[in-house]
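Chapter review. Work through the record for DUF4166 domain-containing protein before attempting the end-of-chapter questions.
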Amino acid sequence: MASTRIPRFPATPASNTILLDDRRFHNLLPDEEWGRLPLAIWRRFSKRFADGETVVYVGTVEEASFSRTGWWLAQLARVIGGPLPTGAETGVPMVVAVTEDAASGGQIWTRMCARSNGFPQVIHSAKRFAGPTGLEEYVGYGVSMALLISVEHEALVFRSVGYSLQIGPLRVPLPPWLTPGDLTVTHSDLGGGTFRFTLEIVHPRFGKLIRQSAVFMEAAS
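Structure tokens for DUF4166 domain-containing protein:
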């Protein structure tokens, strides 16, 4: 595994470097809870690149599983841009690019998952520091989910707490039967500059639908 940082083109002056005092995620947690994070996670979520710059994390998918319902859910979600993983292959590369979004003050996320015998899947989403919890993720065609973050077992955990649909100036809450269930993303540090991202979706009626876990190297500063 390797990592890199991609600057804007043309190159910007030396002042366009990582800012170490970014409190966007910190402000969503009490100081005491934030202080329970391992130093590596604290640093990872406290640095911010200049607007328009991108940091790239490269890793490997270690675990991927679907229930029958979860597989169909992932296929149906392609209608709104394919925000969910669709393949259960492991041992393949995954690349995550995070770009600072000057327009919203948030982040643009692009996830690319390779396949050994087919075209890679690419997932786009945008995180914005707004909404009822202070953090929302937009996954396509006006669909977004509010995220609540917490610290559990020294990991940073993101949980969905409601889905909505943006129609012009209107925001319409989606009823539970139109949502995939509870989405949880866990960021845990493994030491030595490596960390794990785990995505899990659990439906209140159908149980665990999707689980995907990948290990990444820390990106270069």
